[in-house]
Amino acid sequence: MNETELESWFANTQIILETAYIQHEEPWRQSGMSGPEERWISLRKPVADCIDHSGSFLDIGCANGYLLECILRWTTERGLQIEPYGLDISLKLLELAKKRFPQYADHFFRGNAFYWNPPHRFNFVRTELVYVPGDYERMYIGRLLEKFLKPGGKLLIANYMEGLPDPMKGLLPGSHPTRFIEDRLDELGIKATRFCDGYDPTKNRRIRVAVIDK
Scanning 1, 17, 81, 96, which has its CA 20 to 30 A from the CA of 9? Predict the structure, then answer.
């Protein structure tokens, strides 16, 4: 994939996700999760479970900011204080996030994490490997570790297709069908420190979040 093809891939991703998310009214569906809110909680709370101390948190692909809102609530329940930040390629979705967090409107940035340079570094950064084509995953992870995280920071890589028989279903062409995040990280030569898991019994669907220390 050359540079022009890569830019087209990102542009196509923006159109597909923006169109799919913005047509819904439920905040979790505007953030990429179908079904009832109970499914959202069971499959998104593990991201918050990976946060083990107070600090700054950047959600890459933050969409309407609902995951950030939930993470603040879930971490507050454990006595942690999190400063939220969001990054997304969609201006329309970012406007929804800013309305959700008017007090943090200047904490939301429009950009593509594959190219974007953050104004400062963060204690925690959440992302997914499907945000880049499969051939660029190793480069993407390396960039986040180098440019986005504070010393001692933690990169949280969520795999929402963990264990699915056909993880390619619904993926954009060029994405790598990661069935097990630990196996994929091994292929890329990256070692996770630990994992946080979630499970939705209704759909027999799992999530696994890999924690990688800087």
Answer: 96
